């Protein structure tokens, strides 16, 4: 999709400037390439065993619902939303504007997300993994241990690191260009994100600066220009790389219900939360098992994917 640079600079991703487009999540053939011994093990186990889907517990509805304060695109926020959904805990979701400093500062003393509040206890906390652990241990929110601990898989962590630059290049301009994510409904929110999130190959110090006269950071006009150019550029070469990397990941995922042998775990909470944003990229070719994994956990956790607004 080609976007006019002038339009982007004026609106920085308003809905009027960019029309959402439905993506086609096409299945791709499974790869047989074996990259590591861990890959071999995961692939052989997944083909030999029919993994059972997660069995969800009863619906938990407190008289006063807990609230999670989030940015929709934030993978750490998605961790909490996914875990609460899987544990079947009804909760309120409060989407913060990306430029909203006052609300999180009033709650926890600084601009951060996610934030979790339990009104009946007058209790507030931050940090996604701590929130999930606390909810898991509180019997008011159902049986503990529903989500198994992380397994410490280094192969998936290595894969995540290998696509970091690629995903930043593709995802970040699309977050603001859709004009549809709640944290970017207003221009100030979009500009706040752009100011704090550099595009490759820039590093944060040269992008954002340090507040000194010697390093004031890049002017906003230049940042907007770079975001617009990234959005207007033909994504085909990057999509080819991403599709190839997804085939690699498909080999690492144990089943369409959970990524590691033994059942649904914190491995899934982290991996799925990071993969979700890939669905904002149009024309990605998902391998069959991995696409089913994305759809299954989306439904189980009641966290929607971005396919219908993909660019």
Low-confidence stretches: 1-48
Secondary structure: number of strands: 6
Largest sheet: 4 strands, mixed
Distance between the termini: 7 Å
Number of helices: 13
- Strand order across the largest sheet: 3-2-4-5
Category from helices, strands and their pairing: alpha/beta
Report the β-strand fraction as a percent range: 5-15%
**Overall mean confidence score, pLDDT:** 87
The helicity comes to 40-55%
String of helices and strands: HEHEHEHEEHHHHHHHHEH
Radius of gyration: 20 Å
CA-based shape: globular
Provide an overview of this structure.
This protein has 311 residues and is α/β, with parallel strands linked by helices. It is built from 13 helices and six strands. β4 and β5 (123-126) form a beta hairpin. The model is unreliable at 1-48 (pLDDT under 50).
